[in-house]
Amino acid sequence: MHKRSSLTRKRTQKVIQLKEQDDFLDPEAMPQYFQILVKILEGHKLAWTNPQNANSYVLVVLGKKQYRTALKKKTEEPAYKEMFTFEMFVNMRELVRSSVWLAVMELSSLYVPRGWLEKPP
Fold first, then answer.
1. What pTM was estimated for this model as a whole?
2. 31-110 has which fold?
3. Which of its termini does the chain have fewer beta carbons within 10 Å around, N or C?
């Protein structure tokens, strides 16, 4: 009985070693260096609370890294013409699961009225 359990253990160890070798040979499991280029060109037909004073920028986020375009003042159709590069060292599965978040922000939307941040009684 003791020999049988040691054989089972050896087979299990071989299976684990084979799985580790498969992961090593699998290019999707290996971490790789990626560059993701995001180009922000222009905005069209943006609806602002105050169109005469439409100051806007674009916020781009991927993971923990974020970029922001320059502020475009007093225009409803801003032309940003900027690009950002995100650098990642991940495996292919993590890359596919990641997502780029874009938001066109109005500068006046950053204003928080007095009392909004206070805790309720």
1. 0.65
2. Immunoglobulin-like (2.60.40)
3. C
